[in-house]
Please model this.
Amino acid sequence: MVDTTRLPAPHNAERPGTTPVIDPSVDTGPIKVAGDPTGPTIDLESLGRQLLGTWADLRVAARELTARPELQRIEGLSMAEHRTRVFEQLHLLADNGHVHRAFPTHLGGENDHGGNIAGFEELVTADPSLQIKAGVQWGLFGAAVLHLGTRPHHDAFLPDIMNLTVPGAFAMTEIGHGSDVASIGTTATYDPATEEFVIHTPFRAAWKDYLGNAANDGVAAVVFAQLITEGVNHGVHAFYVPIRDETGAFLPGIGGEDDGLKGGLNGIDNGRLHFDQVRIPRANLLNRYGDVAADGTYSSPIASPGRRFFTMLGTLVQGRVSLDGAATQASAVALTIAITYGSQRRQFTAASDTDEEVILDYQRHQRRLLPRLATTYAQTFAHDEFLVKFDEVFSGKADTDDDRQDLETLAAALKPLSTWHALDTLQEAREACGGAGFMAENRLTSLRADLDVYATFEGDNNVLLQLVAKRLLTDYSRKFATADAGALARYVVKQAADRAYHGTGLRRLTQTVADFGSTARSVGAFRETNVQRELLTDRVETMIADIATALRPAQRLPKAEAAALFNSQQNELIEAARAHAELLQWESFTRAVESTTHAGNKQVLTWLRDLFGLGLVEKRLAWYLVHGRLSAQRAQAISSYIDRLIARIRPHAVDLVDAFGYSQAHLRAPIVSGIEKERQDEARAYYRALRESGTAPAMEKTVKAGPKQ
Amino acid sequence: MVDTTRLPAPHNAERPGTTPVIDPSVDTGPIKVAGDPTGPTIDLESLGRQLLGTWADLRVAARELTARPELQRIEGLSMAEHRTRVFEQLHLLADNGHVHRAFPTHLGGENDHGGNIAGFEELVTADPSLQIKAGVQWGLFGAAVLHLGTRPHHDAFLPDIMNLTVPGAFAMTEIGHGSDVASIGTTATYDPATEEFVIHTPFRAAWKDYLGNAANDGVAAVVFAQLITEGVNHGVHAFYVPIRDETGAFLPGIGGEDDGLKGGLNGIDNGRLHFDQVRIPRANLLNRYGDVAADGTYSSPIASPGRRFFTMLGTLVQGRVSLDGAATQASAVALTIAITYGSQRRQFTAASDTDEEVILDYQRHQRRLLPRLATTYAQTFAHDEFLVKFDEVFSGKADTDDDRQDLETLAAALKPLSTWHALDTLQEAREACGGAGFMAENRLTSLRADLDVYATFEGDNNVLLQLVAKRLLTDYSRKFATADAGALARYVVKQAADRAYHGTGLRRLTQTVADFGSTARSVGAFRETNVQRELLTDRVETMIADIATALRPAQRLPKAEAAALFNSQQNELIEAARAHAELLQWESFTRAVESTTHAGNKQVLTWLRDLFGLGLVEKRLAWYLVHGRLSAQRAQAISSYIDRLIARIRPHAVDLVDAFGYSQAHLRAPIVSGIEKERQDEARAYYRALRESGTAPAMEKTVKAGPKQ
Model:
């Protein structure tokens, strides 16, 4: 477990209130450059362990697995070959138990939810198709049986799911309804005469679509449908439905199509399913949250249909958890490739006549890669805490309604940012490697193509952020339903900052807004943790307060006008949710810095955290200026301080990516295999020999200038 | 030709100096909504012609060609199949003369440079691989013979190049040197004894790489190498080098490798070439800008080796020109798909209990797509003017050194922005179409994968922008080499704004900075053309002036320190170049608005231009605040005015993409074929029938609430 208590601050650390105020616009000495013996040094071993996080040993073991060529992607396979290969790889995973950790111990699992996700995430470096196909089988199809079913379902279905005797689809999404699951059209109507449910697709838009395992391999499916019994629709429930016979043919009443080629993840056989009055036994209703008796009577442990629906969906949050981790790993791989290459590749002579510059020494190249490295660090630390939270909920250690709601809000906040960040980082890394980055062998384009869909599956990123914003608004309105606008300024934090993950709702200022304003305007102290916290927290707070104020008239408006008013704030709402998520990441990064004991690591991580935090402020600088939180002078100082931070971090860039711990077997990009340096050494030796031989041709320019001019 | 003279302003147009000042923060009336009969209407016919631009008829004809299935991409082909197909398609293009317009009339061409590029750009909607492979053959390999060779080369080589008897590679880039062409390692040493050049690859890093036609199809290549004669290196020159015999085997001394699979463009056989003392006749030097006599004497019409090099490279600018156009077309296709789908797809009931909202009615969805539409319009207009400029230079109509330099600066400014915009827009469109956007059949992922490399080939985008910035700095320092900082404030425009494209260097304010400051602070007038122009111009001016000031000490520093100082400004330099390029786009858009005569079109285009211009200001709002150009209050008004503009444009969104003029044969995305609407109509009919039948199940919530609660 991560130690979330504050460690005693070492002598060189910043302590709130006691840190001397330093003006970042004043140059406090020469920038530490590569090889400067007076600069901090990184201890790779301990930084590496810190990045591996709570399930470090398990991740190390998983990386031994993903280093095995038989689990790795081969670029350029046809879709059919890739699907076959991935399905075979799934059998390897089933055979070695890598994917069984979350299942009950009495069935051979380990009931280890956090460890299961940690191991699962690591598969992304082998092949994202392998990861997601495994996710469909054990994380969606299997997990639905586990979490929505009860003991008889576990005993009947899970063994064959675990060992892949029964590959299955997770049939939730329909062509007509993706994000709005509650509105799916498929029906499951109970027939008491035969004690069966009749699964039916009433129209084309209700075809299930984009389902992994549906096109070829699926033998069964968990089908989500509107449960209707005794003339009442009880909302969406899940049903276990066999779909193919032993020859691979669809069972009677079931049809489907292959989704065919996709933008990525072509090792997965996504497809469509539809049902024509397909009868299944009553017992095939996964009945943990809703059941139908033989006579058709419906019952549920959760009275409210709305709450029941969200509880059921909430059990499937692990998809979002794991995407957050996998996307962060893909970003780390991309930056390891681009920063390693950038530290070896040379282009243009700038500072001398003979030696070309290493491209990572160009300021623009640093600006392209190092802030993304800082974000990837923030995400790595945030993800580990997120996974701990997930594990606490699913292991039952901390499993109240509030815990579950917090977990879902956290998932809805972090998954969008990390999946978008992965796409952005993979693309920047690709461009930073030039033409070589576009070669499939260097993996960046292929990873990007595969991860593209991470932004919209398991919850569309924009829809998820809107959920977060609604939660923030709810928290806000609970506090201020009747209060005046000035109340916010008097609103003081109820929770200690270091327990922030305990509740993930609306963040609170550690000081009042009024106090904060004057703090920020005092002589610059951007490197002070509390100043960064306040800048980031204040923005979330204020945005939500402003939106809440704008939305206040909605209560008195007819539905259509209220909807129009809400819609007029939608973009701002989503931006507020993003600001909240960024704050969560910053808080995790800060806790990680605070728990770091090695002085060199702590110094470099502090710079990197500052780069992340101040980078967020720089991106939203207009907001801080417009709202009077920063003066123009101070705002300019932020950018120049960021330049300074980047220059300080530059000498540690290679260490910082090495600390992610990927070997050549995980990177598998020839440009970082050492051949770039080898080629340059050969070229430089050639020119040196040529100069020394005295046979080198003179340059026209030199000849024209003559010996003395 | 575009009419670049100012049309008389119609009664409702804004005229500089006479426009009433309107405060945009004041609501001036209800927003026009879809179907509002009092709102403007678009005349699709005339808007469509305007977007097609100067070579409208030629583009229409080219689109008939690209609508032919045999020229279109088939998704999911293997690399080998795709290569074969594209090579066959190239023969179709050669046979119908589509790609011969730029070649000399005496060889069957039309000596039509602008028209050639216009027709070439249209190929992107058929298959980017087809486009780029055609570009390699006729736009690089053929164009190098045309522009760097002389009449004997034309007569000897061009006929077989034009008819594809001799497919060829353009062998410039080496593994070790991409952006820095001057530093390539390949040598061409003249041997007067045999009157031959000896082409040689001295080390591994000097292998030519990423060359289209090199892996399979190339029979010859134009090879760039350091020309060495009589012991002097005269710099990079181009040589015509046969590489394969009639059996397809490499000729003696020549070797190569296949680049294999790439992130996209897999219909092109990119590969590597290397040369071991390969002898070619003296006459194979493409000798327009540098020649070697039989005895080895070197001569050139351009004395300066540096100017000679840039002149030679400058003849190849058409690659950048065409990428700007092709990338803009890809953006237009992406937005046509996403906006059409967004206007048909429904999700979530917000405003009523039964009808789901069209997703383009959500504010966030509008914010994602409509500003990108505005940028695509700006690029479309800017590209047409760019192409006119290109045509004037290459037809000899306006072909001074200054014209050529302006053209290159324009290319270096516009190509980065439009290629990045295409990637960004294709991705946003993909996500805006959800899972359907990820299906290869809907083309967004495949177009994105293909266009990825547009950001780094034909000049890395960051390197190009740095070139632009250096030009801006040169312009600036010529004016202010000895002036004090106050000089800028007294610097008044020398060129009329409507002749902006005549020179593409540093933009000038139409008023002094001092005047401008007070203008911007007066009551809001963001919709006034001159206010937008001044805001955008001022930023470029000031950024360049600030950088120039920061760099001034460099003249007195040793080379390494001067390089470090320059490097400390590199990021800001590139941002200044981007601001300059955005201003160029805005100016083109403004001229297009001004030349529009149809009142409805003019109104909607004005809104769209305002969205583009104010969107640029909003993105850089912090700069305007920090530099005192906008007050906090005015800055906030910009965002709310943008919200208002987007709401006004929304009802015209579908017209605005329809005006791009792509048919289903060009879009080829099933999601915009009408099936989405068909499925929804079927679903709604089903529910309507169910409600009317009286057999619809009651909702649990309703049942529980009871009849009266």
The first strand of chain A starts at residue 168 and ends at 171. Chain A touches chain B through 108 residues (CB under 8 Å).
